[in-house]
Amino acid sequence: MEITQRVLIVDDEAAIRRYLHPILASQGFYVYEAADGQEALEAVLTHRPDLIILDLGLPDMDGIVVTRRLREWSQIPIIILSVREAEQDKVAALDAGADDYLTKPFGSSELLARIRVIQRRQAAITNEPIYTTGRLTLDFSHRLVTVNEKEIQLTPTEYDILRLLVTHAGKVLTHRQILRQIWGEGYDDMHILRVNISNLRGKLEPDPARPTYIHTEAGVGYRLKIL
Questions:
Q1: pLDDT exceeds 60 at position 125
Q2: What's the whole-model pTM score?
């Protein structure tokens, strides 16, 4: 198989790195490894990976710190692998800039599925003015939204939320990230966000009670599904 992408595995457990290395190599990745945060930061500069798989419990610095440092200058997709199951840990990692969060122990099939979602999102988010997923289409240049080729009227706020979700399609956006981007730093009115999401679903979804496009990540935020 032709190698087309590079992945960096950051985990202080050699057994995890040995487990992941052949799985990712079999999918066409050239695999690099790092055992701590500083080594990871140096490896990113040296090898320029297309994807980072990052553990939070590193010996020299927390993986959330590594994520924040990377986000100061890089948008390389980051998937967190961690034994931490608490909601606040997931929110903190996603708020720091991680693209996804998978709890250990995990199955290789699920990890590969999460990677494919990121790859599809990267392929979809281009400079093209029109984005389509399923029967939903967003024409950026004309601020036009259609479902089943029928134009949908959105309020300016609803459109801005949808545009934000589309721009990060396939990625979980936390409540805080959405509030900050749409209403500004320091805004924390969760009720108004929920109302706007509910209104968006009512206009876009075939069945708002069983969303096709805008999925809820319980206690964390929302994700626009790539169909």
A1: no
A2: 0.66
